[in-house]
Amino acid sequence: MIKIPTRILVVDDEKDFVEMLSLRLKETGEKVTSVYSGKECLETLDGKKDVDDIDVVILDIKMPGMDGIETLREIKKRFPLVEVIILTGHGATESAVEGMKLGAFDYLLKPADFKDLSAKLEAARKRRDEHKERIRMAEARFLLRKVGEI
Ligand SMILES: [Mg+2]
Description:
By secondary structure, the chain is of the alpha/beta class. The protein has a single domain (7-149), classed as 3-Layer(aba) Sandwich (Rossmann fold).
């Protein structure tokens, strides 16, 4: 079966970590973009012709400048269908809970286990695909109804 790559945006201020993670994700066939701050994350999402270009954001909580929670609020406000998986350190688990209440799909404790991450990415991608499919169905239904009214 042909695997359709998940389009992932990795956001973390630790460059070594970002590079390592991006490499591993690319090896498993995913399409990865990486940035190093919340600001760049929003600019990247903004710059896409279609936000459908990114399926899942992997978002570090602890970053200088705009932190992960602030970034998450903006993502959910402006791009509500993009799924977000939070990365947090031990000792900052309350921010993971806060993030999930703000609409993040799930969280991972750093250093993230790659198998865990893959499973959560797949689940996030599935939720997004199903959500988009329901929107398409609703659009089609309304369109049909309009045609019926003519
Ligand atoms: Mg950090």
